[in-house]
Write a structure and sequence with these properties.
It is built from 6 helices and 8 strands, in the order βββαβαβαβαβαβα. The protein is α/β, with parallel strands linked by helices and 167 residues long. The mean pLDDT is 95.
């Protein structure tokens, strides 16, 4: 298995899925430090590029991604599959080699992630989700973390993915 990208949803995967809103908009989101360690330290060691594809737009997410060194941050994506296909095309052109869905591990928690997860899995990549993902997503996943979104599920998945990936 040759995984080169870990694509992550944010709300419900990197966070607990709760959105705290005040009169002036989004106030805060909680991120798990163990997830951050996995993304910032373990993924580079495994040669895996972290990617964020999320339907919401959040300055908080942009700031957390800067902290973790995530350069591929795609917010406001209503069509996650289109964004993923474009990402693979761009990296293929840049690196002079063909990347496919089979080079992707995708972790999401809800129906908007299901199409990407299904196609990734069919191509030989990995589909993963937190313990509290919706039933359809859990059924489609190769790996269901024992942890909930925002509570170390991403770190758990990174450990599992790293243990089965080959260069």
């Amino acid at each position: 298995m040759n995984i080169k990208f870990l694509v992550l949803d944010v709300d419900g995967t990197l966070t607990d899925g709760k959105i705290y809103m005040g009169a002036d908009g989004e106030l805060f989101k909680a991120f798990d430090v163990k997830d951050g360690y996995g993304i910032a330290v373990l993924l580079p060691k495994a040669g895996i590029v972290p990617v964020i594809i999320t339907s919401r737009v959040s300055a908080i997410v942009a700031g957390r991604c800067r902290e973790l060194g995530i350069r591929e941050v795609h917010q406001g994506c209503r069509d996650k599959l289109l964004t993923l296909r474009k990402l693979l095309q761009d990296f293929s052109a840049r690196d002079g080699r063909e990347y496919t869905m089979g080079n992707v591990a995708y972790m999401g928690d809800d129906i908007p992630d299901l199409e990407c997860m299904t196609l990734v899995k069919q191509a030989g990549g990995i589909a993963a989700c937190p313990a509290d993902a919706v039933g359809e997503v859990k059924a489609a996943a190769d790996f269901v973390s024992s942890r909930n979104g925002g509570n170390g599920a991403v770190r758990d998945a990174i450990g599992w993915i790293s243990s089965i990936v080959t260069e």
